[in-house]
């Protein structure tokens, strides 16, 4: 039987555990017994399995029923919780909204009250000042033009009327009454003012008044009684007014005799009795002389003047609402509020100028003391009273459409009033509490004017008002909806749907489990039939253990496996366990290849860029590397600055780690070239020159997670250090590999990739090392579409095509010869042109956006042109230089109507003309100049943009100090002297940088003058190259083919003049040698920024600001023109050598008298000391360039010290480079004369330390 035979072999271990039989028969019996027992067990397996399955199915069914029950309970519970939660959220939103509204109402009301009090106090001080200036003696005071000032004060405070009540002692009563009878002219003035401001105000049928042309003149004399006049000789004030009225009598004047010639008061008791009794009576019957008192408070001047029943000379203190508070006001020496009354209960008719709908509203008087002087020991001499309605405090609080807030005004004197706020308008509902107090617990209570409330004390009780705010039913209804029930129903529905899905899924699972169970039952039955249970279990355990051991032996990666079994016996306890609770997660990987890749020239490149540009480059390059690493299964370790570190073979073992890493390294080096070429158009000139320097080394490495703060996967060991040495000793744009990596590549059959480096390298800490260069750029990297081609596209063809299309669309043919120029047709120059175009286009969009912000309809004259020489065609451009450039003022309209520049789209015609113009300018630069070339102009332009960006974002102006955006914009405008607010100025500065060296001859102005060059004669030997550059560039811009471009730059004559003047001024500012220009600039600087100049200057603030703006712009361009001296050392040396080469070429052409090498070293030191460093300090003094000014000064100082130490050797190297270049051109012909210069210079360096100063930088 095969099963028995198989069993005999498989059960050897098991049988060894049975006592050995003494004879064969014994063995056979045991074997037979074993077989029978096993067979007996096999017959009951199926039945027992079915019993277990049935039992488990029953348990599963109960579990499912329990799950369904739990789902139902949870659904009901969550539905209820959802309902309550959303209801609570609505309640909270309701309360929060009301809290917000109430806080705004409290704040606004109290602020409004304070504004009214402050304005009234200011008006009181005005009255005091006028009386003092006019030498008036209280109470005999008439305030000139009181109606005018009073109406203004009423407008500012919202009061209905304003009244002066002087304090009249009893002894002065008779004199006062005579004074008021004699000085009534101010009433006529008030009427006349009202009639002029509001024609027809006094037209009433009772007076039959109508306007006419009859004019009568009267002169009123305001004077106090003689016995109350001061001893001064100042004459009394004469007030003359002209007014007219026609009532049918030719000489009738305004009726101003309505003032009673005595202080009077109203007998309210008698008037009420007469009103009840009926009959004929008038109010004047009850206007009786005031009772004798110590002091009187007669109504005197009032604004607006009551038109029918003037109440002048009425004793204010006789009124019930004033009796208590006047004395309290005098004692407390501060303003007070009176009790509230309805406006219709005013003495006399409610003035027609008041809103009739507010007559029933509660009103109060605000009383403010008037003092005899503004000194501390002042005395109250009168009362200034303002009559206003309480609704004023609640007006314009809520936004339009926000209704339903109830306001209850509750007084301690038994008065109460109710308002309802309907949007911005408070609606007076009436007296008493008219609010339905459903939410009394939400009441907000406050006092409107706590500073004007007098506390009651003793037998003196004063009315105090509390304002209570409640939400109305309408307000509440807006916040409570049916959403809670809808959401609760939705939640329950989700659970019901989930239950249905669960049931359907369960049916499907039961079918699947049934099949699985059947298979498992059969398998279990078969195994149980073949093996006894103990043998089966032993075999399963052995198989599991063998599989585990097999995996451990075959695995090359134990990184995430617990290493407790292989722990060092001598160190049973690791210190890391005490810190982290477990052993370190680390391992040794015997085979790996590590790559270090560093950007060459990155430090110097980043020194002239904005931080955002630096990170744009790093993110773009590293993102490309990361994508390739994922595809090629290379592990990126980290980036250290501009260094990229990666490894292959860790943490996953890989046999071909050296080959894969070599492919990846070559890809990175090649990809860097493509990316930098593409990025040059957006990141500026010099980006294309960046390259990678890559180093590879292979060997064992320790890798693991270094736990702790910001823990990460790291590599350690000599392999890591060697890879870093391979990179640091490598060569730009090459991949250097060590001997270890090369051996692996040779072993893999990739020896053709390698080229041995001659002489090897001397590595720090390693000594002499044999290295190889790896280059596989002609092969595919084997990662899909990614190839190692060095050119992904033909830049030349692409850019040339774009220029061809531009000319076709613009119709310009004037500059076709430029593209035939070898320099212009080169890909690098065309990318440089495109970068200039992009920068100018962005600024042009800002100019156009501002033009649209100023006016929705802008009429642009496409033919607007002007000669660069201004209105006069005679003289030189130098004569056009102005002392100060006029920048536009801050325009709130432009800020309010701001147009996003990104929304502006340049037309194809304008784009074409922009590219054509920039190409024209590039072609106007001399190809023979190594310094004054289009490349350098672009470098200057880039520096201008960097400094301009610092101006646009000064760190001194905080954006988070709570100031409004409008105020921030105005502060920024003032801080930067208006430069930030005018895109046309910014465009002009950048354009000036691009054109400032157009057609430069490559020699100093002094050489042109000495040679009697035609342009020197044309410009009278002053700023020759600069005037020539700006005139050529301007004339080019004024050509007809650039008409559309000009229409986008300026829209009127004023903008054209400002654009022209700014361009001219800034280009000429680059002439730092001309003494006259230098003296004028120093004078402007002294006036603008030195304390002495600022104190002596009598110019306006606007002129001072424009002067500072002019200085800042000129220094900005000057600093940018020599910015290489204030940037990284490598940048400085690069452009310094170019300038030296240009000057040396002039010397070799016999255009310069002296060899520049003779004084170049000393000249550079002098240039730093007398121009560069002072200029950098001035940038810092301007205060608008942020951190850039400090950066420029720091670089200038460091470069000066570096030049001091290395300058002589560097000049020697300049000469050696020129010699090597000439030797290459001559191809071994006769010896170059540079040899003599090198020898001469070497001798001078050794013997001459007193060479003349710098003579060469006037270029």
TrEMBL record:
Cross-referenced PROSITE patterns: GUANYLATE_CYCLASE_2
Main localization is membrane
- Ranges for domain Guanylate cyclase come to 593-727
Keyword Lyase in the entry? The reply is yes
The reply on keyword Nucleotide-binding is yes
Q: What is the designated name of this protein? A: Receptor-type guanylate cyclase gcy
Q: Where is the composition biased (Basic and acidic residues)?
A: 20-31
Q: Where is the composition biased (Low complexity)?
A: 228-241
PANTHER family xrefs: GUANYLATE CYCLASE, GUANYLYL CYCLASE
Which CDD domains does the record match to this protein? CHD
**Per the record, a Pfam family?**
PDEase_I
Q: Where are the transmembrane segments?
A: 65-86, 485-505
């Amino acid at each position: 039987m095969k099963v028995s035979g198989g069993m005999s072999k498989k059960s050897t271990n098991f049988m060894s555990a049975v006592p050995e039989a003494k004879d064969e028969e014994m063995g056979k019996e045991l074997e037979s017994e074993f077989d029978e027992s096993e067979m007996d067990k096999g017959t009951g397996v199926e039945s027992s399995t079915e019993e277990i399955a049935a039992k488990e199915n029953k348990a599963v069914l109960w579990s499912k029923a329990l799950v369904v029950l739990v789902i139902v309970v949870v659904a009901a519970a969550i539905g209820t919780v959802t309902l309550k939660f959303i209801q609570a959220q609505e309640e909270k939103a309701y309360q929060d909204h009301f809290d917000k509204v109430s806080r705004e109402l409290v704040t606004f009301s109290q602020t409004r009250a304070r504004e009214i009090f402050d304005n009234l106090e200011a008006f009181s001080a005005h009255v005091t000042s006028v009386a003092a200036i006019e030498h008036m003696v209280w109470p005999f005071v008439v305030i000139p033009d009181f109606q005018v000032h009073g109406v203004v004060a009423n407008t500012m405070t919202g009061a209905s009327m304003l009244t002066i009540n002087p304090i009249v002692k009893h002894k002065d009563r008779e004199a006062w009454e005579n004074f008021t009878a004699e000085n009534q002219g101010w009433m006529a003035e008030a009427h006349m003012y009202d009639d002029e401001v509001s024609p027809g105000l006094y037209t009433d049928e009772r007076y039959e008044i109508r306007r006419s042309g009859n004019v009568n003149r009267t002169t009123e004399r305001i004077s106090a009684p003689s016995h109350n006049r001061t001893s001064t000789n100042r004459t009394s004030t004469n007030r003359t007014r002209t007014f007219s009225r026609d009532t049918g009598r030719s000489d009738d004047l305004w009726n101003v005799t309505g003032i009673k010639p005595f202080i009077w008061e109203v007998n309210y008791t008698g008037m009420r009795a007469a009103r009840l009794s009926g009959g004929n009576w008038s109010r004047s019957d009850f206007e009786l002389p005031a009772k004798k008192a110590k002091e009187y408070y007669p109504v005197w001047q009032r604004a607006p003047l009551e038109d029918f029943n003037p109440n002048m000379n009425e004793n204010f203190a006789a009124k019930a609402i004033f009796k208590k508070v006047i004395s309290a006001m005098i004692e407390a020496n501060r303003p007070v509020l009176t009790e509230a009354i309805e406006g219709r209960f005013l003495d006399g008719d409610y003035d027609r100028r008041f809103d009739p709908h507010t007559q029933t509203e509660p009103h109060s008087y605000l009383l403010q003391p008037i003092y005899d002087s503004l000194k501390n020991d002042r005395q109250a001499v009168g009362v200034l009273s303002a009559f206003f309605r309480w609704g004023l405090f609640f007006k314009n609080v809520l936004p339009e459409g926000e209704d339903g807030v109830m306001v209850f005004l509750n007084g301690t004197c038994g008065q109460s009033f109710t308002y309802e706020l309907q949007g911005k308008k408070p609606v007076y509902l009436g007296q008493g509490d008219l609010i339905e107090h459903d939410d009394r617990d939400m009441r907000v209570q406050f006092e409107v004017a706590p500073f004007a409330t007098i506390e009651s004390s003793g037998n003196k009780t004063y009315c105090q008002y509390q304002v209570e705010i409640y939400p109305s039913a309408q307000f509440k209804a807006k916040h409570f909806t049916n959403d809670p029930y809808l959401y609760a129903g939705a939640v329950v529905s989700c659970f019901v749907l989930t239950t249905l899905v669960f049931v359907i899924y369960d049916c499907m699972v039961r079918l699947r489990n049934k099949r699985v169970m059947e298979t498992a039952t059969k398998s279990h039955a078969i195994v149980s039939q073949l093996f006894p249970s103990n043998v089966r279990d032993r075999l399963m355990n052995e198989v599991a253990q063998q599989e585990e051991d097999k995996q451990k032996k075959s695995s090359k990666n134990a990184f995430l496996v617990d290493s407790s079994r292989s722990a060092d016996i001598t160190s049973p306890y690791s210190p890391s366990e005490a810190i982290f609770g477990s052993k370190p997660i680390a391992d040794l990987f015997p085979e790996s290849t590590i790559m270090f890749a560093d950007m060459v020239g990155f430090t110097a490149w980043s020194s002239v860029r904005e931080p955002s540009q630096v990170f744009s480059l790093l993110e773009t390059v590293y993102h490309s590397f990361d994508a390739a690493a994922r595809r090629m299964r290379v592990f990126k370790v980290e980036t250290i600055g501009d260094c990229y570190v990666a490894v292959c073979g860790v943490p996953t073992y890989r046999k071909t780690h050296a080959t894969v890493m070599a492919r990846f390294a070559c890809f990175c080096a090649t990809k860097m070239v493509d990316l930098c070429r593409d990025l040059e158009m957006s990141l500026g000139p010099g980006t294309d020159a960046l390259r990678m320097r890559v180093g590879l080394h292979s060997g064992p490495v320790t890798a693991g997670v270094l736990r702790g703060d910001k823990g990460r996967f790291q590599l350690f060991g000599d392999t890591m250090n060697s890879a870093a040495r391979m990179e640091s000793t490598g060569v730009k744009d090459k991949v250097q590999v060590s001997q270890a990596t090369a051996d692996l590549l040779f072993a893999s059959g990739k020896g053709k990739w390698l080229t041995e480096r001659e002489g090897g390298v001397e590595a720090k800490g390693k000594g002499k090392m044999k290295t190889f260069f790896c280059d596989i750029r002609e092969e595919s990297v084997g990662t899909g579409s990614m190839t190692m081609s060095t050119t992904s596209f033909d830049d030349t063809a692409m850019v040339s095509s774009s220029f061809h299309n531009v000319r076709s669309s613009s119709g310009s043919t004037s500059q076709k010869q430029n593209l035939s120029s070898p320099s212009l047709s080169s890909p690098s120059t065309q990318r440089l042109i495109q970068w200039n175009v992009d920068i100018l286009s962005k600024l042009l969009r800002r100019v156009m956006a501002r033009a649209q912000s100023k006016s929705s309809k802008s009429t642009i004259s496409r033919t607007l042109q002007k000669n660069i020489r201004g209105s006069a065609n005679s003289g030189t451009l130098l004569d056009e230089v102005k002392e100060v450039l006029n920048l536009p003022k801050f325009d709130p309209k432009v800020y309010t109507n701001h147009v996003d520049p990104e929304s502006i789209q340049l037309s194809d015609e304008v784009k074409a003309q922009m590219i054509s113009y920039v190409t024209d300018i590039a072609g106007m630069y001399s190809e023979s100049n190594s310094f004054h070339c289009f490349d350098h102009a672009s470098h200057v332009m880039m520096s201008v943009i960097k400094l301009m960006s610092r101006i646009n974002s000064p760190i001194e102006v905080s954006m988070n100090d709570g100031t409004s955006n409008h105020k921030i914009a105005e502060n920024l405008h003032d801080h930067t002297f208006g430069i930030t607010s005018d895109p046309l100025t910014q465009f002009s500065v950048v354009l000036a940088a691009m054109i400032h060296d157009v057609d430069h001859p490559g020699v100093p102005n002094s050489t042109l003058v000495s040679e009697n060059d035609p342009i020197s004669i044309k410009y009278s030997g002053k700023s020759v190259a600069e005037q020539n550059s700006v005139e050529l560039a301007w004339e080019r811009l004024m050509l007809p083919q650039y008409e559309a471009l000009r229409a986008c730059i300026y829209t009127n004559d004023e903008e054209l003049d400002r654009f022209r003047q700014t361009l001219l001024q800034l280009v000429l500012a680059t002439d730092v040698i001309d003494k006259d220009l230098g003296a004028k600039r120093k004078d402007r600087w002294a006036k603008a920024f030195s304390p002495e100049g600022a104190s002596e200057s009598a110019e306006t603030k606007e002129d001072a600001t424009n002067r500072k703006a002019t200085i800042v712009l000129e220094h900005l361009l000057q600093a940018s023109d020599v910015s290489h001296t204030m940037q990284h050392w490598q940048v400085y040396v690069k452009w310094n050598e170019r300038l030296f080469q240009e000057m040396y070429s002039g010397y070799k052409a016999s255009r310069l008298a002296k060899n520049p090498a003779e004084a170049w070293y000393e000249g550079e030191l002098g240039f730093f000391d007398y121009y560069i460093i002072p200029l950098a300090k001035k940038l810092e003094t301007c205060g608008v360039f942020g951190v850039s000014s400090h950066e420029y000064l720091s670089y200038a100082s460091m470069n000066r010290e570096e030049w001091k130490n290395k300058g002589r050797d560097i000049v020697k190297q300049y000469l050696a480079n020129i010699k090597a270049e000439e030797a290459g051109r001559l191809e071994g012909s006769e010896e170059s004369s540079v040899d003599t210069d090198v020898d001469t210079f070497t001798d001078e360096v050794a013997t001459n330390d007193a060479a003349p100063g710098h003579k060469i930088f006037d270029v």
